[in-house]
Specification:
The protein is α/β, with parallel strands linked by helices and about 300 residues long. Helices cover about 35% and strands about 20% of the residues.
Length: about 300
């Protein structure tokens, strides 16, 4: 399977927004602003873009990809939302730009890109392992940090009982979730006009509903158990759109979040230190943190 610029151009719709090509140079070049300073990391993990949906925050993701440099980039699933695209085609120019930016990381910056598909882009799982124009695509992998720790990298839907045992419920839940995301978009348009910062309605509901909190706790514990069974030091996943890092019985559980609600990434510096990066939360600046509020136990 080959994935190149010609294929991107075929799937991209005609739009008033154009993405400049490297082959196109203006007749007269004016001095522009200085390029942004790169944030440099050894490794970056990002997931759950859901390209092909209106909930994807593609412009913020593009800003992240253009200003972050890393030796290895892991795409931890649900990059493209094939479920949504089957129902209704939605693919603006900004989504094409995200795909090109990822390809250019590999071609121009020499970044190793590893793609672990999720349940929304599971169509790729039938062809693994494959190479997509220099991008390694695999079911799962193990990453070794600079200080010698080993982490299993997996999307995580395999440990979601709704996805594995009741697919109809997963599809129904996805429709409801996208409805909340759309309402959240309108809600934040009003907040922005009133001068208030972004606030995630879906994340608020997730932490207020006891069953949702209990589900998150069970999901995290199931992945930690799998990491322990595999004999690794930690596990890195996505899927539930809940950025988190916590110790679960000696296992370092990491969830890199998403680019629908949280706009987060998991990063590793060249000393092996890892943290969650919140991108553009306030005033376009990145914020890093080691911890997030932990969900209560399922029995609570």
């Amino acid at each position: 399977m080959h994935f190149d610029d010609e294929l991107i151009d075929r799937i991209a719709p005609q739009s008033d927004v154009s993405i400049p090509s490297r082959a196109t140079t203006p007749h007269r070049r004016r001095p522009g602003p200085r390029p942004p300073e790169l944030h440099r990391y050894r490794t970056v993990w990002i997931s759950d873009f859901h390209l092909g949906t209106r909930g994807c925050r593609a412009e913020r993701l593009l800003d992240f990809l253009e200003t972050v440099h890393c030796d290895t980039l892991y795409l931890v699933g649900d990059v493209i939302d094939a479920w949504a695209l089957k129902k209704a085609w939605y693919w603006p120019a900004s989504h094409t730009a995200v795909v090109r930016a990822i390809l250019n990381l590999n071609r121009e910056r020499g970044t190793r890109v590893v793609y672990v598909p999720g349940n929304h882009d599971e169509v790729l799982r039938d062809y693994l392992p494959i190479d997509l124009s220099g991008i390694e695509v695999c079911q799962e992998c193990v990453h070794e940090t600079a200080d010698g720790k080993r982490y299993l990298v997996i999307h995580g839907d395999e440990f979601d009982a709704v996805c594995t045992q009741a697919r109809w419920a997963a599809v129904l839940g996805d429709v409801a979730y996208r409805g909340v995301i759309r309402a959240n978009s309108y809600f934040n348009t009003v907040r922005r006009r009133l001068g208030y910062p972004y606030w995630s309605l879906s994340a608020f509901l997730k932490y207020q509903v006891k069953n949702a909190v209990a589900f998150i706790g069970r999901f995290e514990e199931a992945l930690a158990d799998e990491a322990k069974r595999r004999g690794v030091d930690g596990i890195i996943c996505g899927h539930i759109h809940t950025p988190s890092r916590r110790d679960i019985e000696g296992i370092d559980y990491c969830n890199d979040g998403d680019w629908v609600e949280s706009c987060t990434a998991l990063t590793e510096d060249h000393a092996g230190e890892m943290q969650i990066l919140y991108w553009g939360r306030e005033g376009g600046e990145a914020q890093a943190t080691e911890r997030r509020p932990e969900p209560v136990a399922a029995s609570a």
